[in-house]
Amino acid sequence: MNTTALKGKRCLIIDYGMGNLWSVESAVNFLGVPCEVITQPDHLDGASHVILPGVGSFRLAMETLAGRGMVEGLKSWVQTGVGCLLGICLGMQLLASESEEDGTTKGFGFFDSRVERFRHSVDSHLQIPHVGFNSVTFEEPQGIFAGLKSGCDFYFVHSYRLDVRGTRGRTGLTTYGETFLAAAQLDNVWGVQFHPEKSQSNGLQLLRNFLETNDSTC
Amino acid sequence: MLKKRIIFALLYDNGFFNLSRNFRLQRVGDLDWLIRNYDFARTASYVDELVLLNVSRQVSDSANFVETLRFLAEICFVPITAGGRISNFDHARVLLSNGADKVLVNSLAAENSREVFRIAESYGRQSIMLGVDVLRRSGVVTPVTRHGANALITDVFEHLSTMAALPVGEIYLTSIDRDGTGNGFDSELLDLLPQPLEQPLILAGGAAKPEHFAHLLDDPRVSALSTAHLFNFVGDGLLRARNLLLSKGHLLPKWQPEEIIKLKGSLQQ
C-alpha cells in the first residue's frame, strides 16, 4: 500500500457509455463526498476511490474500456494501492476472470470467478432477469458490510452472475434458484452485483463503508 | 429470497403531478409542491421502486420531464423507471442517461417494436419495462394504447403472448377500470394471462389500503404491486402499510427509512 496521505476524498466514476451514472453520482454526493465522472485513464491520478458502474453487454463494455486504455490504466491504478475500486453490477462482472456473454470475453481478472447466465432448470419457472430486492448473506459485518446484518436486502437487476466456484475475495452470497457471488472484496478491489445506490439505507451504508476506507485500510 | 415489491408511480403532465381516475387526469401540484409540501423524499424511502410517467396527452415539455427525473434520482435511492411518450431509441437513451434505471414503453412496443430491440441491444432487456393498459368492454378485456384512446384488435392473452417475446425485462399491467377508484386490484386479470409469463409482472390500478396489497402479495404470478394515488397513502401511510404487511409475514424487503437522513452528508469533510 502506498503510504502517501490523501488530501481529502476524491471519488471518480468511470463513464464508458453504459448505465445510469447519475444515480451513483447522486448517492456519493448525498453522503458528502465530491465526485467526478471521468472517461480516460489519465484522469485517475489523485483519486481516493473509483467506481466502475454499468449495465449491458460485457463484451461491449470490455471493448470500450480497452479502446480507451482504461483496462491497463485501472489495473495499474489498483496496483499502486492509493485507493479503492468498487465495481457495481456489470462493473463487478468486469472485475471477474471472464464472461460467457456473447462468446467468451476476458475480464480484469481480480476475482477468479466466471460470469455466466443463471443456470436454472426449465421447470423451475424462475424468471430472468433476476429483478428486485434479495437478501445477501455474509460471515462478518465488516469491510463492505460494516454496520449491516447478514441477510439484509439489496436491489438486483441482472441475467448473468459470478459463479461461486471462485474463492478469491468471496464475501457475500445470494440465492436465486442457485447461489451466486453477490459481493466480493479482495484487498482494495470491491465488487457488488446489486445496486447500492438503489437499495435505500442498506445501499447507502455500503457506499459509506466503501468511501470511508482509506489507503491504509482498504 | 427474492422479495415482492411495492411501487409508487408519479404521473407527470407538463410540470404537474396528477391524480388519475380511469385515466382521466386531475392536477395536484408541481415539483416544488411534491418536494416541499408532500415531502416526497420521505415517501420514496418507504417504497421499493418508483415509476415516473409522462402522461401528457398533448405536446409535452420533455426537457422538463428529464429535469424532473434527474431531480428525483438525486434524492431517492430506489430504482426509477421513466416512461410515457417514448417514441424512439434516442428518447429512451436520454432517460437512461439522466437517472432512469429502466424505461417503460407501451405504445412504442405495440407500434414500433424495432426501437425496443434497439434499446435492448444497448442497455439490455432488463432496462425495459413493457407497459400494458387494459380496459373491460362488455366483459372482454382489451389491451389499449395511446392512454386508452386506441383499442387493439386482440385480447390480453394474445397481446401479452406476442409482446412477451420482445426483449423486455418486466411487464407493468394497468387496469384502467380500477385506476384511481380505490376498489382494489383487478386480480381476475391474472387468470387471463399466459402462464407462466417469462417476465416478472407488476400489477397496477385500484390500490387504496394495505388489504389490497395483502390480497395479492402471496400470489406467485405477481412480482410487484403499484399505486399511483398521491393521497391514499399520504404522510407515512406507505410506511404503516408496509409495516403491517411485514408483521403479517409478507415478503417485502427491509431497511431503515430513518437511517437515510442520518447518512446524508455523513462523510462531509
Spatial sequence of strands, sheet with the most strands of chain A: 2-1-3-4-13-12-11-8-9
Radius of gyration of chain A from CA coordinates: 16 Å
Strand order of the largest sheet of chain B: 1-4-5-6-7-10-11-12
CATH topology grouping of chain A: Rossmann fold
Distance between the termini of chain A: 9 Å
Basic shape of chain B: globular
CATH superfamily of chain B, by name, is Aldolase class I
Name the average pLDDT of chain A: 91
| CATH class descriptor of chain B | Alpha Beta
Spans of chain B of at least 5 consecutive residues whose pLDDT stays below 50 are: none
| Total strand segments of chain A | 13
Element pattern of chain B in H and E: EEEHHEHEHEHHEEEHEEHEHH
If helices are DSSP runs of H or I spanning 4 or more residues, what is the number of helices of chain B? 10
The value of Rg of chain B in angstroms is 18 Å
Question: How would you sum up this structure, described in words?
Answer:
The complex is a heterodimer of chains A (218) and B (269). Chain A contains five helices and 13 strands. Chain A has helices at 21-31, 58-67, 70-80, 90-94, 200-212, and strands at residues 11-14, 35-38, 49-52, 84-88, 96-99, 105-106, 111-117, 130-138, 152-158, 160-162, 170-176, 178-186, 189-192. In chain A, strands 2-1-3-4-13-12-11-8-9 form a nine-stranded mixed beta sheet. Chain B is of the alpha/beta class and 269 residues long. Chain B has one domain: Aldolase class I (TIM Barrel). Chain B is built from ten helices and twelve strands. An eight-stranded parallel β-barrel of chain B has the order 1-4-5-6-7-10-11-12, surrounded by five helices. The longest helix of chain B is centred in the first third of the chain and has 14 residues, at 62-75. The model of chain B has no long low-confidence stretch (mean pLDDT 94). At the A-B interface, helix 1, strand 8, strand 9 and helix 5 of A face helix 3 and helix 10 of B.
